[in-house]
Amino acid sequence: MDDPILDAICERLRQKTYIKGSNVLSRGCLIEKMVFIVRGKMESIGENGIKDPLSEGDVCGEELLTWCLEHSSVNRDGKKIRIPAQRLLSNRIVRCLTNVEAFSLRAADLEEVTSLFSRFLRNPRVQGAIRYESPYWRSVAATRIQVAWRYRKKCLNRANTSHSAARSSG
């Protein structure tokens, strides 16, 4: 990532301490920040109950970055546009397993950074890195693959059952 982007982000980071047992994100609540874990352990619990561990170097609330880029007040041509105020709701719980030292980046600050550097952040390679390096997006992808596999298997079983029934009746 370029130095100007890192500088813009670092200027807006806030140092935080989260207490063991506290929730950083709650299902159905607004995602108001991205949290970069410096020290400590958290767990992310998805809608399906699957738990993903988070620790030093991990991030939670990263879906906010994608959301900000998709709802940016700057279009792809670099022109400002007006977007009605709406926010992103969490579909997971992120809970502290230990006391956690972290840096947070508020949604408003993230929106400002994404509008300043929208051209760079919309680059397909950058978008790919955001999605493929994120535990959250990996978990979402794994869940979708499992659902698709189960659906396909169910359809194949139905087809085999109906095909077998047609043979035995004929």
Automatic annotation (TrEMBL):
Keywords: Calmodulin-binding, cGMP, cGMP-binding, Ion channel, Ion transport, Ligand-gated ion channel, Nucleotide-binding, Transport
PANTHER family associated with the record: CYCLIC NUCLEOTIDE-GATED ION CHANNEL 15-RELATED-RELATED, CYCLIC NUCLEOTIDE-GATED ION CHANNEL 20, CHLOROPLASTIC-RELATED
Domain Cyclic nucleotide-binding: 1-65
Source organism, top-level taxon: Eukaryota
Gene3D superfamilies for the chain: Jelly Rolls
CDD domains membership: CAP_ED (cd00038)
Gene Ontology BP terms: monoatomic ion transmembrane transport
Native source species: Corchorus olitorius
Protein name per its UniProtKB record: RmlC-like jelly roll
GO molecular function: calmodulin binding; cAMP binding; cGMP binding
Lineage of source species: Eukaryota, Viridiplantae, Streptophyta, Embryophyta, Tracheophyta
GO cellular component: membrane
